[in-house]
Amino acid sequence: MDDVAARNKEIALEVWGNDLDSHKTSPDDPSFREHFDRYYTEDYWNHASQPGKDRGFQNAYYVRKAFLELFTDPNFVIDKVAADGDLVFLEGVFTAKHTGLTLYGVPATGVEVSQPQVHILRFRDFKISEHFVVRDDYEMYRQVVPLDQDGGILRFVDTDKYDAERDDAAERADAPEPAEAGR
Fold first, then answer.
1. How far apart are CA 22 and CA 139, in angstroms?
2. CA of residue 39 relative to chain centroid, distance
3. Which of these, 175, 11, 178, 170, lies nearest to 87 by C-alpha position?
């Protein structure tokens, strides 16, 4: 790993590796702006946010405000971290208690939620300039609204139909070949 990637990884772990509960600073507090200016570029782009509200300090303000109003006891446990040039990859599990705002259209439930996440941070001059995230929102949704159904792609298809098709194909494979006509 080159020196730039190593330093970017160190910064990512400093910002993301701390217990998120320690990041309770209100976005209206001047220290929040200082934190943003220290770790993020002025033109920071959060690709996980709504277009038009996905850039710079304005985005950081909105995300922090919503985060503080949605959850208590937030934590992000990092299981894996890798760095390559200007990119740092963080894989882990977010946990918190849903005690505030409406989440996925559901009023606060008070339930503990957890969600596997992968964050990709792009750095420029040792500051975070872009943020990408891959997370399973359905996983968290199921925790605030328990459903009596299987999750994932299989909840959208009729697996009984697949079983019947497989059984039919097996029967055809086991059937004797018809005798050729004219022999």
1. 25
2. 21
3. 11
Residue 12 CB: number of other CB atoms within 10 A? 23
State the DSSP code for 179: P
Side-chain half-sphere exposure of 9, counting CA atoms within 13 A: 15
- pLDDT tens for 119-176 read 999 999 999 999 999 998 888 888 888 666 555 565 556 777 777 878 887 888 887 7
Closest CA to 68 of 104, 39, 96: 96
Q: Is the per-residue pLDDT at 28 higher than 80?
A: yes
Assess contact for 93 and 116: CB atoms under 8 A. Answer: yes
Letter string b/e over residues 98-133, b meaning 16 or more CB atoms within 10 A of that residue's CB: bebeebeeeebeeeebebebebbbbbeeebbbbbee
Measured between alpha carbons, how far is 124 from 9 in angstroms, rounded to an integer? 13
Q: Which amino acid, 36?
A: F
Residue 126: closest CA among 3, 36, 7: 7
60 residue type, one letter? A
